[in-house]
């Protein structure tokens, strides 16, 4: 009986708790060095009447991440130094969208520049806000299949990249064992196995590992 | 023959392209309001001898995200306003680690505070750097099973939350259809289906949807 009462009480709470949007009272620019970042601070009014005067917003460029499968069935991956982690990590082809570039065009350009591969078949796996509180840009995940080698890689100064090819099951194993250390590329791998539109999706039903 | 030559050329390129770490020449603090954020700028020396004088680093608090399955087999989700997106979104129980708090303790506290549920069985699904270039904190994903209602939710001022319970297949469908709009919670759902240690893992082999 006590449990039943609790459950009813809870239901009442839930019914009353429909979330409402906040109001933005003012916004102040604190730091700007485009296209890299822009930091601002909002003064926001909450639905309960309270005000928060230092709710920070962080604008970072959007980026695309590619899970590309070659004609031989292997996944194109990279080893690359990442400064925020301070070491060389396992990564996927990825990069910031240029001005006015679509996410797909960015994904195709980054795959070619970083690995030298092109692909004819592309699927959009999803696009996500990096941080619901601060912003921090947007991640666009793509799968590509039938990738073939087309040219020498053309990397930027900040990109010293070793391209490696891995079996799909080894990529999923790397994800699950924590060897993909950055959120965007790790999630792109996850989506490539979970999304029915992805060429790797059928594998997720057969992988009784790990 | 032409293709073969290209492949050899490519192999030579790869053999030479082992990535090396960058050197941090100096670091300057630009903006600090802890525990919320700290922005600094590094002057870095690349392996090719070039120097970048404005490589920004963004420190944000680490956070935990929970995919909790109730005793009835449903997943505890939330509808909540997120200021960086400017609207009410579908979310998971999640929150910043308090000072000296472990990721697991944070996950358990946030589940209880935001939903009123506790769980006896917990699995760590993975921890990830949010942004390999800038940092932006760390995300820790957990799965919990056998969750039971224990108390009224105790939300913070910034958290006006509607708790909802969804079938696992509907949660995966929401992920694939783009209804989970933030990277951390969306990825936690993905991991909950992909990781063999997760109570939802067995479902990923049976879901012939979507």
Helix content of chain A: 25-40%
The computed structural class of chain A is: alpha+beta
Q: Which architecture of the largest domain in chain A per CATH?
A: Alpha-Beta Complex
Seen as an oligomer or otherwise, the chain set is homodimer
Uncertain parts of chain A? 1-16
Largest sheet of chain A: 5 strands, mixed
Topology:
The structure is a homodimer of 210-residue chains.
Chain A: H1 2-16, E1 23-33, E2 37-45, E3 51-59, E4 63-70, E5 75-82, E6 87-91, E7 94-96, H2 103-115, E8 117-118, E9 121-131, E10 135-149, E11 161-166, H3 168-176, H4 183-194, H5 201-204
Parallel strand pairs in A: 4-10
Antiparallel strand pairs in A: 1-2, 2-3, 4-7, 5-6, 5-11, 8-10, 9-10
In short:
With 210 residues, chain A is of the alpha+beta class.
Descriptive keywords:
5 helices, 210 residues, 2 domains, disordered N terminus, Nucleoside Triphosphate Pyrophosphohydrolase, alpha+beta, homodimer
Question: What does this 3D model show about the protein?
Answer:
2 copies of one chain form a homodimer. Chain A is an alpha+beta fold and 210 residues long. Chain A has helices at 2-16, 103-115, 168-176, 183-194, 201-204; strands at residues 23-33, 37-45, 51-59, 63-70, 75-82, 87-91, 94-96, 117-118, 121-131, 135-149, 161-166. Chain A has 2 domains: 2-58, no CATH class; 63-205, Nucleoside Triphosphate Pyrophosphohydrolase (Alpha-Beta Complex). In chain A, a hairpin with a 3-residue loop joins strand 9 (121-131) and strand 10. Chain A starts with a helix and ends in a 6-residue tail after the last helix. The model of chain A is unreliable at 1-16 (pLDDT under 50). Helices cover 25% and strands 41% of the residues of chain A. Chain A is globular.
